[in-house]
Design a protein that fits this description.
The protein is mostly beta strands. It has 5 helices and 16 strands. The chain has one domain. Residues 45-303 form the DUF1996 domain.
Length: 364
């Protein structure tokens, strides 16, 4: 991608911001970055499959405890309904979820869910979370207009397409980074979804894990909090990069905070070179995708009134990742303790080997 110098420098430093916070060297930035611990792993999806107790494939969910099979905005207001949040920002009761990854044994074809691990800080320590996701809210890295308009209650969207089995045209919005042991904490160098990353699963062992990035659209039509396909009300900015500047198409003129996920998968147990031969690799997404092109994420807004807008307006001054006076934080112990029981109860292969993927999606 043709990154501008400013964008490249800013994004290479994405993992460095927490080190600044820990040393007390708060500084301005164009994004928030914080960890969310695992809330639940189950087959539910209130955006794509509302009301369905067992959705077609498994998801890993973080955020507000009001997460439910049905998230009707007329009846569920996450900040008021949630008893806790598994995110570091205590005013954030949004829900964020992605598909799980499984290792399929080349010996007998059984499946084991690849565990998630906490993301790292530049100073070599881990974010306060167990598994889960790392969340970014970003304003434009380039251009002169830094203003963003935050989401309205009930807003939701998805990024990526689980039906893809070949590389999509246009900017890379979902990607995989294969980490060496030395990259375990730092996550490697370079901007997200740059030439170090691939749309497909890595074709070699990743002893330091795999970092999956999901980048959401940055422009909104200004009217609808959802759409039938959960995509049409939002759009990526014009150009050849997913991480956007301050421009938006006329059809979607409102610049919203750009949401990005990082999911760290611990593939160290499955990094045997014998698993990667003759063009094959042993990983599969929970919806049956062995290519990796179908990586995707779901987002459901649930911040308390005004909190996210305060933070976005404060970016560029003394608001830097978790060092942001505009927001309230909670302890690592508290966010990690925010979990809930499965609504769709089943063995998901966390500590066992499964004969089939949950929901038995076709492998392709």
């Amino acid at each position: 991608m043709a990154w501008t110098r400013r964008v490249a420098v800013a994004l290479v430093a994405l993992l460095a911001q927490d080190a600044s916070a820990q040393t007390g060297n708060a500084r301005g930035s164009d994004f928030l970055r914080f960890g969310c611990s695992q809330l639940v792993v189950e087959r539910t999806d209130p955006i794509v499959n509302p009301g369905l107790r067992f959705s077609p494939h498994l998801h890993q969910i973080v955020g507000g405890s009001s997460f439910n099979v049905t998230m009707d905005p007329q009846t569920i207001d996450p900040p008021k309904t949630s008893k806790c949040t598994s995110c570091k920002m205590s005013e954030d009761f949004s829900n964020y979820w992605t598909a799980s990854i499984y290792f399929q044994s080349p010996e007998n074809g059984t499946f084991r869910r690849v565990p998630q691990m906490a993301n790292g800080r530049q100073n070599g320590t881990l974010l306060e979370q167990e598994g889960g996701l790392t969340i970014y809210y970003m304003r434009p890295f380039s251009g002169t207009n830094k203003k963003t308009t935050v989401f309205k209650p009930g807003f939701r969207m998805i990024a990526g397409d689980p039906n893809l089995r070949a590389k999509a045209s246009g900017p890379l919005v979902n990607c995989h980074r294969c980490l060496a042991k030395a990259d375990r904490i730092m996550g490697g160098s370079g901007a997200p979804c740059d030439r170090s990353d691939t749309a497909e699963f890595p074709s070699k062992p990743c002893p330091g894990g795999i970092r999956v990035t999901v980048i959401f659209p940055s422009c909104w039509d200004g009217k609808n909090v959802d759409s039938p396909d959960h995509r049409s009300h939002v759009a990526y900015a014009p150009g050849n990069q997913a991480l956007a500047g301050d421009k938006c198409p006329a059809s979607h003129p409102v610049r919203i905070p750009q949401v990005m996920y990082e999911i760290m998968y611990d593939t160290s147990e499955f990094a045997n070179p014998a698993y990667y031969k003759n063009g094959k690799q042993p990983l599969v997404y929970s919806f049956g995708d062995t290519t990796g092109y179908g990586a995707h994420g779901d987002y459901l807004f649930g911040w308390e009134d005004g909190a996210l807008q305060r933070a976005m307006d404060a970016l560029g001054t003394n608001c830097w990742s978790e060092t942001c006076p505009a927001l309230k934080l909670q302890s690592g112990e508290k966010l990690i303790s925010c979990t809930k029981e499965q609504q769709a109860k089943e063995d998901v292969g966390t500590n066992t080997w499964l004969k089939e993927l949950p929901g038995s999606p076709m492998i392709k």
